[in-house]
């Protein structure tokens, strides 16, 4: 058996597991530095306007309150690359919840009491927080997130749609969604002269270091950011957030280490959210189901602080062979918090709409939904014309159908009835791009026979330490227990964030290269190693970020079975199955955890998670876990994940694709399609809550105009 069989591809246990379950792992707010103080922010109580005055005297009179920072007395900072970090720099209030003061206290309780005592005067202005499909201020931006063109049109989709023998024109809505990681955003900052050290709950210390150096006008080498353990992020910690700037600001002002852990109720307004997306889908097809036209138009919102455009129409450029297509994004700048990255940005809401519309088309055609997807399988990426590096969606669909027991399914809605329960099954496809970025890493052979590998990766609960040790051990030809991994320290070197399902591919590439070079050095070394060992370094700039001649994506197929209670309107998912094609799976244990975690998040997106902007108040009405319902153990049914191990030579030295996000992409659509199969009701707005289900059942039983007849 080869080393790769023993190490890379083995279901190794997480290296940090014991620390986490015993409570010895230290998170950002748990670094008890000498003389540490605590901070608590004051959020704006208006939706738009400016601060005209701050009365800090009542707060400063309280015992234990050390300082109150306001736009009037806070240190002036350099301009950040991200404008959401320009906190306490001017009196403007761009949205409700924007921080307008910060109280520092001897204890967390003192800081919280002080924040409640601060009195802020405002000059309020009219505001608009309501997104509509025809919002007068909506515009087509230059690009959507990720640098995708906002509009891509091929052929003549309108004429092709008009000429199609089968047509579908429909709309879907996905509400604002929130990341809500288990560990809130937190930072502990400490100054030593002009040197700054921050422990932060961050998905990437390189970006945090750069922003702090820029804003506090100090050399980057004078800033150290560590994120050894991070309790989830789902994208919201992919870029620095106000907590890290405010903690550093307060520490400089007081001369003491300061910890700021954002209260959960504040998170929706200051750490990003998935923007609402309004979808218009128009599909034209031949009688056999082959698409002739595909139009996907999305309207979303952004803030007035900066432009952030959810790229939700982009999956239509990847999935299906349609000779005529248009994918378009519109965005309206409103007086809302700035949206940001949330797990599978673009793909999660975009594929919900596209895969739901495809299910509607299958019903109109009388074609099996699995078969319809297979009939529209492209031989090249539709949007770019590039060949796929690998694409095994058809295999995922067929293997999933086999495992799920899809064959023999009665396609007629509402045919499986047991008392008040209606049962149904649904399917949806999934895709996520292969992303990779340059990274630096080093590998050192030590005299005691061990190896030390250093890479500034961030383990946000995915098992990155473990998989990187496996990659290193395979490249070194060494046992995994002989490899020590150091991660999550900006002093190690530059590295991309843990996001975009790109972490392992990016960090692992650099680790593989450093270890391969070290192996070459050792082959020519004779005699004992020097006291400092032998080191090799790698920088994948120019290789990892090189333009590829191939379209690189992961794919998957989701299957769901639901039971719908016609009395209560409750939807219970009985089974979820996902089959994925995501390159070579490096650790089956952690991979399965990621797939199932994504599918669970998709279940929440389908059934329980949503948020609303209060048009009169200008704030999200669901601001905590009592009102924003993430799935609990009782909500998660039997979830099963399988994969097809792909051989793809056009990715990275490990042959791996990202797996952190594709699990969420197709789940909501599969559940929604199953609800339609159970009830005959097509619900086009998430989540599928009991009130919406009951309204749909009532309308289905009594179409408009028939009640009372």
Structural commentary:
It is a single chain. Helices cover 26% and strands 24% of the residues. The chain is of the alpha+beta class. The strands form five sheets. It has a seven-stranded mixed sheet. The chain has a five-stranded mixed sheet with strand order 7-15-14-13-8, with helices on both faces. The chain has a five-stranded mixed sheet with strand order 16-17-22-23-24, sandwiched between helices. The longest helix has 21 residues, at 503-523. The protein is globular and about 75 Å long. The model has no long low-confidence stretch (mean pLDDT 96).
In short:
The chain is built from 17 helices and 24 strands. The N and C termini lie far apart (75 Å).
């Amino acid at each position: 058996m080869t080393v790769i069989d023993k190490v890379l591809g083995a279901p190794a246990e997480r290296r940090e597991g014991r620390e986490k379950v015993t409570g010895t792992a230290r998170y950002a707010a748990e670094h008890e530095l000498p003389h540490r103080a605590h901070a608590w922010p004051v959020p704006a109580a208006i939706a738009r306007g400016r601060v005209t005055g701050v009365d800090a005297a009542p707060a400063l009179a309280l015992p234990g309150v050390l300082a109150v920072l306001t736009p009037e007395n806070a240190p002036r900072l350099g301009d950040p690359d991200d404008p959401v970090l320009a906190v306490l720099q001017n009196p403007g209030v761009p949205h409700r919840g924007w921080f307008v003061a910060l109280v520092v206290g001897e204890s967390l309780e003192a800081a919280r009491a002080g924040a409640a005592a601060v009195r802020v005067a405002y000059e309020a202005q009219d505001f608009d927080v309501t997104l509509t499909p025809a919002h007068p201020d909506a515009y087509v931006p230059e690009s959507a997130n990720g640098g995708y063109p906002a509009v891509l049109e091929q052929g003549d989709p309108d004429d092709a749609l008009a000429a199609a023998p089968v047509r579908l024109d429909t709309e879907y809505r996905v509400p604002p969604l929130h990341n809500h990681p288990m560990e809130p955003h937190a930072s502990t900052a400490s100054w030593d002269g002009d040197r700054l050290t921050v422990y932060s709950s961050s998905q990437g210390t390189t970006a945090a270091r750069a922003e702090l150096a820029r804003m506090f006008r100090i050399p980057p080498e004078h800033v150290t950011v560590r994120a050894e353990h991070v309790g989830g992020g789902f994208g919201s910690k992919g870029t620095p957030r106000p907590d890290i700037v405010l903690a550093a600001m307060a520490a400089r002002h007081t001369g003491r280490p300061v910890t700021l852990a954002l209260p959960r109720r504040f998170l929706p307004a200051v750490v990003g959210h998935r923007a609402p997306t309004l979808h218009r889908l128009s599909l034209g097809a031949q009688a056999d189901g082959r698409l002739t036209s595909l139009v996907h138009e999305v309207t979303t919102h952004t803030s007035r602080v900066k432009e952030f455009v959810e790229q939700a129409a982009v999956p239509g450029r990847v999935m299906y062979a349609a000779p005529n297509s248009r994918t378009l994004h519109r965005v309206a700048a409103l007086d809302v918090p700035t949206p940001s990255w949330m797990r599978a940005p673009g793909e999660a809401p975009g594929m919900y709409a596209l895969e739901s519309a495809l299910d509607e088309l299958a019903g109109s055609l009388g074609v099996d939904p699995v078969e319809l997807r297979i009939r529209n399988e492209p031989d090249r990426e539709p949007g770019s014309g590039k060949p796929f590096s690998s694409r095994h969606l058809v295999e995922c669909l067929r293997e999933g159908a086999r495992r799920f027991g899809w064959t023999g399914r009665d396609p007629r809605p509402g045919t499986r009835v047991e008392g008040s329960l209606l049962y149904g099954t649904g399917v949806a496809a999934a895709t996520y791009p292969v992303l990779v970025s340059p990274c630096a890493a080093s590998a050192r052979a030590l005299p005691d026979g061990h190896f030390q590998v250093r890479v500034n990766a961030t383990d946000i609960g995915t098992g990155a330490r473990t998989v990187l040790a496996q990659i290193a051990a395979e490249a070194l030809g060494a046992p995994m227990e002989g490899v020590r991994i150091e991660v999550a320290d900006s002093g190690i070197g530059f590295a991309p964030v843990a996001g975009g399902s790109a972490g392992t591919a990016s960090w692992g590439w650099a680790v593989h290269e450093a270890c391969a070079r070290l192996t070459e050095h050792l082959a020519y070394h004779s005699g004992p190693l020097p006291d400092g060992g032998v080191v090799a370094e790698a920088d994948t700039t120019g290789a990892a970020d090189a333009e590829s001649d191939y379209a690189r994506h992961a794919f998957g197929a989701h299957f769901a079975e639901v039971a719908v209670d016609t009395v209560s309107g409750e939807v219970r998912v009985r089974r979820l199955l996902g089959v994925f094609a995501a390159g070579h799976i490096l650790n089956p244990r952690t991979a399965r955890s990621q797939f199932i975690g994504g599918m669970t998040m998709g279940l929440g997106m389908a059934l329980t998670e949503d948020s609303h902007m209060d048009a009169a108040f200008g704030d999200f009405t669901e601001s905590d876990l009592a009102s924003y319902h993430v799935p609990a153990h009782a909500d998660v049914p039997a979830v099963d994940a399988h994969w097809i191990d792909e051989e793809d030579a056009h990715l990275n030295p490990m042959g791996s694709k990202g797996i952190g996000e594709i699990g969420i992409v197709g789940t909501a659509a599969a559940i929604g399609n199953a609800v339609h199969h159970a009830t005959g009701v097509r619900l086009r707005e998430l989540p599928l809550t009991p009130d919406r289900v009951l309204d749909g059942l009532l309308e289905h039983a009594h179409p408009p105009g028939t009640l009372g007849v």
